[in-house]
Amino acid sequence: MSAIIESPRQPQQRASKGRVNWEKYGWIYMRASGVLLIILIFGHLFVNLVQGDGIKAIDFAFVAGKYATPFWQIWDVLMLWLAMIHGSNGMRTIVNDYASNPTIRRILLGALFVAAVVLIVLGTLVVFTFDPCSTLIPADQALSFCPVP
């Protein structure tokens, strides 16, 4: 079995007019989201580990205090969305490169899509519905600012 490799000087076949070049936009997204993720992650690490008492200060009350402000909710959700889509797009590229059977490729891509959507939705729900004063927390473990029932 032999493969024919075209000359590297051959012009690439252009997509027909009206079609979207998803690979190009995926490539651009990976670069842009990578830069934004570096900023978001180092900002996250700086606030959580460098400011204050470091890792000893991170507990339930610390997270409750952060999620009491919309700024940190949006920061963390943006980091979640960018990281999950960035990672899923990278995995999609790996699946497309190494899964030669079309049926297996479709199954893997479908599972990857479902996993990414489920994790993004659950993570977003956790951030925006976080309630540090839940009635499920025992009264002796409630935070100082929570009303005791």
N-to-C terminal Cα separation, in Å?
Answer: 76 Å
Q: Mean of residue pLDDT?
A: 86
* Corresponding CATH superfamily: Fumarate reductase/succinate dehydrogenase, transmembrane subunit
Biggest sheet character: none
Label the overall shape: elongated
Number of domains: 1
> What is the overall number of helices?
4
CATH names the topology as 3 helical TM bundles of succinate and fumarate reductases
The CATH architecture category equals Up-down Bundle
Give me the secondary-structure category.
mainly alpha
CATH class: Mainly Alpha
Which consecutive residue ranges, at least 5 long each, have pLDDT under 50? Answer: none
Please state the CA-atom Rg, rounded to the nearest Å: 22 Å
Order of helices and strands: HHHH
- Number of beta-strand segments: 0
Measured by DSSP, the beta-strand proportion falls in under 5%
**Helix content percent band:** 55-70%
Write the layout of secondary structure elements.
Layout: H1 22-50, H2 60-66, H3 70-98, H4 102-128
Helix pairs in contact: 1-3, 3-4
Description of the structure:
The chain is an all-alpha fold. It has one domain (24-132): 3 helical TM bundles of succinate and fumarate reductases (Up-down Bundle), CATH 1.20.1300. Helix content is 62%, strand content 0%. The chain is built from four helices and no strands. It has helices spanning 22-50, 60-66, 70-98, 102-128. Helix 1 packs across helix 3 (70-98) and helix 3 packs antiparallel against helix 4 (102-128). The model has no long low-confidence stretch (mean pLDDT 86).
